[in-house]
Amino acid sequence: MKRILLSIIAIFASIATIFAMSIPATANSVLPSKPVSAVSSLINQDDLCNTAATVECVDLRGGKTVSGTAVQAWPLESSDNYEQLGFVDLPSGRVEIQFITAGTSNCVYHATNHTLFLSACDPNAADTYAVSQVGSQFDFSPGGGAYISAGSQGAQMSLSSTLNGNTKFNETKPSTTTGLVFGVSDPDLAGESSATQLAQLKQMASIGITSVRIEVNQEYVQYNGAGTFDWSQVDTQVKNILAAGMTPEMIIDGSAAWDAVGGSSSGYAQPLSAADFAAWASAVVSRYGSSTKVFEIWNEENASGFWQPAANPSVYTQDLIAAYKSIKIADPSATVISGGLAPESNDGSNINGITFLQDMYADGAKGSFDAVGYHPYSNPALPNTYESWSGWSQMSQTSPSIRSVMVANGDSAKNVWITEVGNESGGPDGIGLTGEATEFTQAIADAKATSWIASLYIYSWQDEGTDATNDEDWYGLLTHAGAVKPAYTAVANAIK
Description:
By secondary structure, the chain is of the alpha/beta class.
């Protein structure tokens, strides 16, 4: 999304250490060396695993993921206090471990980044002990694995029988080992032909991009009045994004002239009412909820260029609350992100992102978004340089910061979605081709190292022009002619 650049800003990325829980001192830390013959007999494989192509089961004998192979677990030995029941060697991704037997449980589950333990079981439960419908998800680093241990002899013996017959491991594979969404924010995609869209999207996917941020503006869909909808432009983008193997992230924004304060046809005027905006949001989710689950409520609403006539946190918050309710009614599983805030200054018509977020909470926004959208632009500086007015620094390093405001309002469990970030390689404030590449290398590394950052959307895909006097022409990973820039290669390498 086009935006007004800051004149002087720099980045110092906040790195949060991934939380890891302690491993019991008595637990094994390596796969035990036991022959296959030591594995007790299994019940029928069909009772264990859905053998469809979408489900993978894990053969615990060798720590190897084998599609359609039944789960096997090492038999327990009563002499071992913490006997490993199984090992799963995962190259990447997220594993769901589900115990599906009858009974009750007093066991305690805990995990490190690489290890899941089942411990502190009731030693008196003996043969009657079982785990009932327990499912959990844990993230693992490359080459990591999952271990399962029983914490007492009495429980061990019963769990041996239970696990051998009733455990399945399903592996899903997100785009990165950190679970981050890497996307491109591409406002120019809508103006391309369908064939060009698809070619560009396939090229994005080839470097590890999994999501594309597009705008669904009421002015472009309901320009003929209430009750009329022209979805054709959005439909084409969604079709091509899905065909390229990616998913859309949708900005729900805009006001058609008939539904805008002052009758403005700019597309970014304040909506006439929260009820009208909620109806618009519901229409979008009802149509595209089967194609995406991520919806962002407006774009840079703290900047007068995108909320006219001037930024207004109170009105925006009422629109957000109404839209959140309507979206959750249409699709309870949807993720609703507050509009990406820009690092603006408090100048009477624009409001700084931190100030705006504080005002949102004061106006009752808490509970009406699932994540906070933010645009940590730092033009023309690079990441890893701190300035108090830097968009990236203001994300967590300043006092207050975007993150500290969330924590102070009880939202530490919610993530920040970076739905735009970039730097210009040319123009008056350009940092050069090498500088742009370094921008993304540092930004992606910082995002990977920060547990509460859920996404990073690159702005943008291709330069919009070659005007040396216009910064907005130079944000692409590709030149205006379509040649790859160093930033393209840098992004591909950093995402890996």
